[in-house]
Amino acid sequence: MAEPVRFTLHATDGRARTGTIETPRGAIRTPAFMPVGTAATVKGMKPADVRASGADILLGNTYHLMLRPGAERVARLGGLHRFMDWPHPILTDSGGYQVMSLGDLVKVSEEGVAFRSHLDGARHFVTPERAIEIQRLLGADIVMAFDECTKHPATHEQAARSMHLSMRWAERSRAAFLEQEREGAALFGIQQGALFEDLRCESAARLIDIGFEGYAIGGLAVGEGQQAMFDVLDYAPEQLPADRPRYLMGVGKPADILGAVLRGVDMFDCVLPTRSGRTAQAFTRAGTLNLRNARFAEDMGPLDERCPCPVCARFSRAYLHHLFKAGEMLGPMLLTEHNLWHYQEMMAGLRRAIHEGRAQAFARGWIDQAGD
Amino acid sequence: MAEPVRFTLHATDGRARTGTIETPRGAIRTPAFMPVGTAATVKGMKPADVRASGADILLGNTYHLMLRPGAERVARLGGLHRFMDWPHPILTDSGGYQVMSLGDLVKVSEEGVAFRSHLDGARHFVTPERAIEIQRLLGADIVMAFDECTKHPATHEQAARSMHLSMRWAERSRAAFLEQEREGAALFGIQQGALFEDLRCESAARLIDIGFEGYAIGGLAVGEGQQAMFDVLDYAPEQLPADRPRYLMGVGKPADILGAVLRGVDMFDCVLPTRSGRTAQAFTRAGTLNLRNARFAEDMGPLDERCPCPVCARFSRAYLHHLFKAGEMLGPMLLTEHNLWHYQEMMAGLRRAIHEGRAQAFARGWIDQAGD
Questions:
Q1: CA-to-CA distance for B310 and B98, rounded, in angstroms?
Q2: Which of B85, B325, B334 shows the shortest C-beta gap to A314?
Q3: So what's the ipTM on this one?
Q4: I need a surface site. Which of B140, B219, B264, B341 has the fewest CB within 10 A?
């Protein structure tokens, strides 16, 4: 019988924490950045190269995978890990966030969410029970409760009503998860409450009452801006149990992650490093670069002189500029790889800094050089 | 001082030959297949993965590189090898073939070829001397003489006139190459003469009289069909020196290559494995597959059970089908890699078979299973 998921804290520095989430498929070092593998692939990356960048865990998108290739099909093919050749941990979102973003194609009720596929217009209905079932079929190691991501901006009344619905769905998600009797998998609850401290507090209490292996902070990075997000993160992580991982969903820019880690967050996911890689945006320790810019046409230097990634070791800015100008696939491939290394190197640096009691200085130094 | 390029024959089997072309940047095992790296990249492949597939040498396209990023720019950036991180041998075509295919945008004279760039309409004029200069700037290990690829079909008179022009250009190419005094680089002449044995014979004699480190057979694979091509290859290779490599340009399908090797050809290049990889066509020992076909949606097998490539070791047909249906970059990436391995494995098998005196049986067995 597989071991359950277990979180161990190794060191704290102020509110920043570093630790390990042990899962049957391997350890996740926290603070952790999870690359996004929307459709059973981190776009433009072979899984072994994702692993080499330092990723301990990937995020898969339930919404996309349920539509194509389909959860039952993935299950028949041996599960998502085998399907995409990623034998390490996978976290799947519950699909709620992406379903809600379909706008007019969505109808939310107490029972669940009715929507039409963006691919073929087919009707679907997802309940908390079905969301948990889909994530079981995919074989996720970390399963997310089904929630409604409260729209921004929201009044206190709107945020309360939405949060209360998410909490009822969290309870149903937990019941469905426990019925599966899945050894070695974890279910995370998702705190909502928009920008209201009292609602965040109530949501956290409700989730703790239900009991989860980890807790996500949802409903942020939806347009409120970094300062408003940090204002929530000044109290939200501490409303959640200290002995469980805290996951800030969909975040973010390097400076967002640094600020959130200093406020007690352990896990992150974001499409930014991969999406930026496809649009010629490079993250470096000296700021971001647009590789399409003509000033790189004869720049023989690497993207980032201090980056240990295989791209910086082998290729010049001039070459990457050429690849993007020529529309060559290798441009997005190489820049995605570099950006993922950049993120993982930042996370590794953060973990060391927390161990050594210099997390604040590390974050300040990084932002001073790379920008916010 | 670098060693000159040297060709050593190790074994023959009928007219089939196996040997090694030694260059200062490494050895090329023949019969050799050269992947095409048009714009300083084999599309969708990291150079280390191209190398791992068994490629000893790449082909670069002079026409594309002279337009973007530009030959002088590549030279300022340290040459093509460094630019694209391919430290092994590179052969560059002379640009003639691709310039001619521009159709109405081209004007051929005794002096050279005037044309407009397909990228921006800018006027260019390439002479044999400039073609050799461009290839020097790129840093090619094997340089091709500038020629006119005779259009198909051609009358005897048209083919003769075109071939005679190419032979005058071959002489100018040789003179320009010798003036460079490039140690360690080789210049190959290109035989023309369309489908006419007497013209092929005359062209070969003319080239031998000028003297080259290797000889290409040009003007084939331009629409004449496999049988007509084989009819020419029944005599053309033997018109060329036995102690120099023979290169059949732009060929081809696996069955074309097998037939040409049996007729005494040593080197090949073709976009087929890479282009097919981007259009979901897989080469396998049991025939070609279209990965978009719905019958692969739940096929857990590898592309080719007998293929030792990293793609077949890790990914199912079902996964590749999914990637192509979802429009994911990883589909073309993985299928290109597999197809390149397929070609290189065939070449390696051919080389062994020639050593062991069973080249005919190898070719027949391969075609019986994989189709022609």
A1: 33
A2: B85
A3: 0.98
A4: B264
